[in-house]
Design brief:
This protein has 277 residues and is of the alpha+beta class. Helices cover 17% and strands 28% of the residues.
Length: 277
């Protein structure tokens, strides 16, 4: 696997994933697959709930067919996403490089052989003050809305484990969510069921981002009246994938605006010199 972080990039020309050009860091690669840091606002594949959102499957294959050198050198005959990830979520996106490797990867996904680790922000003191929560409500797609709902009668099995990572006196908390079988919106709806609604999640009644003026009352700058964060504060931090009899840990760095939000909320970031709660 390649360890060249931030120096090994894939680029997308304007029009492929939006009006502006996009560059993504490669966080892992083998002969069979490639993993990149997906930004929020981009889909990994076409999905009924995401009509009109540009997707990476189409963009990667279009550039591969056009002979773009940085994709040709990866030795792929096609690209196919291993799992669905909400466009609103940033983090690790995994793509097979051939039909055979895609079938193998999706079989691993369907057999719950991958492990997913998310980070998200919620209100402090949520979940009744618990530090660990296990959610196992069966989930069902809503009849008319692009969302999931709990249903013991018709829902499909789902399980998410939540762990509190850090909490600040400003009223916010950083949580981790892990699962080995990822259904659409699973982390979002399971978090909401247990009163852990994610910051910026308008579908599941998540709290709004606080204004900078609330977090930084002594600052007197032009941007102080704006929210500290825009979008859904949910990031797929790590995916663990079977790899030649071993396991590959694929980690996506926190987007800069996500990191700045945590700093302004005075939330400790695990592994960066601050102790976890």
């Amino acid at each position: 696997m390649s360890d060249s972080r931030k120096k090994n990039l894939i680029g997308f020309a304007p029009g492929l994933l939006g009006d502006a050009p996009v560059r993504m860091s490669i966080v892992g690669e083998t002969d069979a697959w490639i993993a990149v840091e997906k930004p929020a606002g981009v889909a990994v594949r076409a999905y009924p709930w995401d009509a009109g959102v540009p997707d990476m499957d189409a963009a990667l294959n279009k550039q591969l067919q056009a002979g773009k050198p940085e994709l040709v050198k990866l030795g792929a005959s096609l690209f196919g996403s291993a799992y669905y990830l909400d466009p609103a979520v940033s983090g690790v996106a995994l793509f097979a490089k051939s039909r055979d490797s895609l079938a193998e990867l999706r079989n691993c996904v369907g057999s719950a052989e991958l492990r997913y680790r998310f980070w998200f922000v919620a209100k402090a003191g949520a979940a009744g003050g618990a530090r660990e929560v296990v959610a196992d409500a069966p989930l069902l797609a809503h009849n008319t809305k692009p969302k999931m709902i709990p249903s013991t009668a018709k829902g499909k099995k789902a399980k998410t484990e939540f762990k509190l990572l850090s909490e600040s006196g400003l009223g916010w908390a950083l949580w981790e969510a892990t699962t080995s079988f990822l259904r659409p919106h699973q982390v979002r709806v399971h978090a909401a069921i247990h009163e852990l609604s994610i910051l910026g999640d308008v579908l599941y009644d998540g709290p709004e981002a606080p204004l900078l003026s609330v977090l930084l009352p002594n600052k007197r700058t032009s941007g102080i009246r704006y929210p500290v964060f825009s979008g859904l504060a949910l990031h797929l931090r790590e995916v663990v994938v079977p790899n030649s009899g071993e396991e590959a840990s694929l980690r996506a760095e926190l987007p800069r605006h996500f990191r700045v939000m945590l700093q302004r909320m005075q939330l400790a970031i695990p592994g960066e010199g601050a102790s976890e709660v």
